[in-house]
Design brief:
The complex is a heterodimer of chains A (361) and B (262). With 361 residues, chain A is of the alpha+beta class. Helix content of chain A is 24%, strand content 33%. Chain A has two domains: 237 residues, P-loop containing nucleotide triphosphate hydrolases (Rossmann fold), CATH 3.40.50.300; 114 residues, Beta Barrel (OB fold (Dihydrolipoamide Acetyltransferase, E2P)), CATH 2.40.50.140. A six-stranded mixed β-sheet of chain A has the order 6-7-8-3-9-10, sandwiched between helices. Chain B has 262 residues and is mainly alpha-helical. Chain B is globular and about 70 Å long. The chains are: A alpha+beta (361), B mainly alpha (262).
């Protein structure tokens, strides 16, 4: 069973993945995936390499067959349909544009295969070129385009036949950082404009959090958590999600008083921490803090911790300061103030945080 | 010093290759006593047997190319896509015609497909022509397979196939509209090599008693002096023209879609 079970909701979902497993020989790469995706929703599959996210995507596309389980789109079981009968658009990491065809030829390929009339194909290609903002490049060949342009064309090609579902397999991975950011905004805008149900596979948490209606975090073939980006980031359900999504500083501690939420960690007692139900005095607990939860200024009710600055990273708008306190390393993100230089390594710093900001793992 | 030795080696190699050709070409031009002339070539082109055998071999070459493409392109594609583990075995099989003499192959054919066999192909002209075409395809297999396989190596076969499938294309469409156009230059290279092999092939055509260009060259060589030299130059010319066409066409190959740096 997966950590998250959506099977109840699966019956009314536009795209439902019901109890899907996949094994390659003796290795099970997907372990009981249950996902329900609504019409028009943008869902990201997030996880490290080899977690099974791409395998699920490929099963939806029809390039892999589930070992067990069913895949349903708009009430129709497509598990046994061939890939070319599924009406699914797919964008690949390596663009996969046909080198022998022009941009217009690539975009119109699916329509030509479907036997559409020449005039209809031309009109749709023109629409798609406008949609991706490249109307002047219709006669170019793929090798004459930049990576970003190629990926836009690949997106237009996938959308041209009006697929029921759009699958994006790490489409931004091969692009430069700046192009990646602008293209992800474009992809999201196009997806919203067309209202197409979309699955986006990525190992980049920033991409997943910024683009998605919901994020599904996977690890070792299991779904760890599915939820809105805010929920997944702020309320991770498992230790893996907490560590994988965003940066997290952890402190190993012992529960001193479960009723008061008192925990001894990093040589300090912290009171008012929200402990999990059933926590008992003397039990070990891991406290976790996001860098943005730590502050240099103190507010009422804050918990505090002093330590030595061991590293300062200037990241432009943000300065990341690492301090060592009671044997634990904590990271703090502070906005860059042009009038105040960053603190120096070796200085002592006291950091403050609200008890509510402490996650217990 | 090393450079000088390299040049000497190169010149020696070039002369070793070029001198017999120059000598033969010069001899082919000496039919008329005391002056260079194209008399030998005129006689060859005017010979109805030349026209008949050359036309026959060209037709056989075209049929062999068509059959070879239909056989090799889907096979090489399928091996790359679905059976990568079988590649060494397939390569071994395609290399066999290089180590098995043509005479062995053709004797095998005659034994298997003679008039008293289950499939008496040698019993009719058409049947024998078909058998000869299969024989030529076998001889050309190492070159055709390697050309096509090299072409397939330059494209991402698996991803292009999946992209085409996701756009609704079936296997025939994928092969004809995606794979073949992208390996067309490689296929044409294999086709020209096949053409060159078929035009000059002697053993199979002679033993199957077909009026091909190879046996005609041999016949002429046994009975005339200057015409065989002219024929050899013509045959060389055809082969070189094929090679030149391969080089020329390589310039028009679809370029892989590597992203331009932004």
């Amino acid at each position: 069973m997966s950590a998250v079970n959506n099977s109840k909701a699966n019956s009314d979902a536009f795209l439902a993945i019901n109890g899907v497993t996949k094994s390659f020989g003796a290795v099970q790469v997907v372990r009981g995936a249950d996902i329900a995706i609504s019409k028009g929703e943008f869902v990201s599959f997030l996880g490290p390499s080899g977690c099974g996210k791409t395998t699920i995507l490929r099963m939806v596309a029809g390039f892999e067959t589930p070992t067990t389980g069913r895949i349903v789109i708009d009430g129709k079981d497509i598990t046994d349909l061939k890939p070319n009968q599924r009406k699914i658009g797919m964008v690949f990491q390596s663009y996969a544009l046909f080198p022998n065809l022009t941009v217009a030829g690539n975009i119109g390929f699916g329509l030509k295969v479907a036997g559409k009339a020449r005039a209809e194909i031309d009109q749709r290609v023109e629409e798609m070129l406008k949609l991706i903002g490249l109307p002047e490049l219709s006669d170019r060949f793929p090798w004459q385009l930049s990576g970003g342009q190629q990926q836009r064309v690949a997106l237009a090609r996938a959308l041209a036949p009006r697929p029921a579902v759009l699958l994006l397999d790490e489409p931004l991975s091969a692009l430069d950082a700046k192009i990646r950011v602008s293209l992800r905004e474009e992809i999201r805008a196009i997806q919203k404009e067309l209202g197409i149900t979309t699955i986006f596979v990525t190992h980049d948490q920033e991409e997943a959090l910024s683009m998605s209606d919901r994020v599904m975090v996977m690890y070792q073939g299991r779904i760890e958590q599915i939820g809105a980006p805010f929920e997944v980031y702020n309320h991770p359900k498992t230790k893996f999600v907490a560590n994988f999504v965003g940066t997290l500083s952890t402190m190993e501690g012992t529960i001193a008083d479960a009723a008061k939420g008192s925990v001894d960690a990093a040589g300090t007692r912290f009171d008012g921490v929200r402990l999990p139900a059933g926590a008992t005095n003397g039990a070990a607990v891991t406290l976790a803090l996001r860098p943005e939860a730590l502050r240099r200024d103190r507010r009422d009710g804050d918990l505090s911790l002093s330590g030595e600055i061991i590293d300062v990273d200037f990241l432009g708008s943000v300065i990341r300061i690492d301090i060592k306190a009671g044997g634990e390393k904590l990271s703090l993100d502070a906005f860059n103030d042009p009038t105040t230089p960053p603190p120096a390594i070796g200085e002592t710093m006291t950091v403050h945080f609200a008890p509510d900001a402490v996650l217990t793992l | 010093m090393t450079r000088l030795l390299a040049w000497i080696a190169f010149l020696f190699g070039a002369l070793y290759f070029a001198l017999p050709l120059i000598g033969m070409t010069e001899f082919s031009l000496k039919m008329r006593r005391g002056v260079y002339s194209l008399d030998a070539y005129v006689k060859v082109f005017a010979d109805p047997r030349f026209q008949e055998t050359f036309s026959f071999s060209v037709m056989m070459a075209l049929a062999t190319i068509a059959f070879g493409v239909l056989l090799v392109v889907p096979t090489a594609y399928w091996v790359r896509l679905k059976m990568p583990g079988a590649r060494p075995w397939i390569e071994f099989v395609t290399l066999l015609p290089l180590v098995i003499p043509a005479i062995v192959i053709v004797f095998g054919y005659i034994r298997l497909y003679n008039t008293s066999s289950f499939l008496p192909l040698t019993g009719s002209t058409t049947g024998t022509n078909i058998l000869l075409m299969f024989g030529y395809a076998t001889l050309a297999l190492p070159y055709m397979y390697r050309s096509v396989d090299t072409g397939l190596r330059t494209i991402d076969v698996a991803t292009l196939t999946e992209a085409a499938q996701s756009l609704g294309a079936g296997w025939v469409t994928i092969l004809s509209r995606v794979i073949l156009p992208n390996v067309l230059i490689a296929v044409l290279s294999g086709a020209f090599l096949t053409f060159a092999i078929v035009i000059g092939e002697f053993t199979m055509a002679a033993l199957l008693d077909r009026p091909a260009f190879g046996p005609y060259m041999q016949l002429l060589g046994a009975n005339r002096a200057y015409e065989p030299a002219a024929l050899a130059v013509i045959a060389f010319g055809i082969t070189w023209a094929c090679m030149a066409l391969i080089q020329l066409l390589a310039r028009f190959a679809p370029k892989p879609a590597k992203p331009v740096k932004e």
